[in-house]
Design a protein that fits this description.
- It contains 6 helices and 2 strands; from the N terminus they run H-H-E-E-H-H-H-H.
- It has a single domain, classed as de novo design (two linked rop proteins) (Up-down Bundle), CATH 1.20.1440.
- 72% of the residues lie in helices and 3% in strands.
- It has a two-stranded antiparallel sheet.
- The radius of gyration is 17 Å and the shape is elongated.
- By secondary structure, it is mostly helical.
Length: 151
């Protein structure tokens, strides 16, 4: 990967807090730790992602595990681009696709929180912000790459 392509490295760096948040939410969902969230009329992690929360799973799979796998996939794809030319060649498109899917899934989850559950999970919100920043970086990386190719 070329040094002028700083966006993938920043995206890769942002996967680390994302992984930590998803891991925390999984532990919380499994009842292994207590919530560090503030409970108010607007915030309540327990109702969103706690043990027994209705929308904290998709079928038998905890949403936090989906988040862990998503962040890990993004990290691995960027890492693999250093070793596999075919991934490096298509990295901008891969990142926009992967992170774009993550953003759509995140927006779906935020809509559930706001319109169905009626409260927001603070840590889920932090994860959503990370995904939004990563998506903006991926779009910038794609557009910049196309400009360089056209020049």
């Amino acid at each position: 990967m070329h040094t002028h392509n700083w966006q993938p490295r920043l995206i890769q760096l942002l996967t680390l807090p994302g992984l930590l948040i998803a891991y925390y939410l999984w532990l919380y969902h499994e009842g292994q730790i207590i919530s560090a969230c503030t409970v108010t009329n607007f915030f309540d992690c327990g109702r969103v992602s706690g043990p027994g929360a209705t929308y904290a799973t998709i079928g038998p799979i905890p949403v936090a595990i989906i988040g862990l796998l998503g962040y890990a996939a993004i990290f691995v794809v960027i890492w693999a681009a250093d070793f596999l030319p075919v991934i490096e060649k298509h990295l901008p498109e891969l990142l926009v696709g992967l992170i774009g899917f993550a953003l759509l899934f995140t927006l779906y989850l935020k809509a559930l929180e706001i319109f169905v559950i009626g409260v927001i999970c603070q840590y889920c919100l932090y994860s959503a912000i990370i995904i939004a920043i990563m998506f903006a970086l991926a779009i910038h990386y794609l557009i910049r790459g196309r400009r360089i190719e056209a020049a």
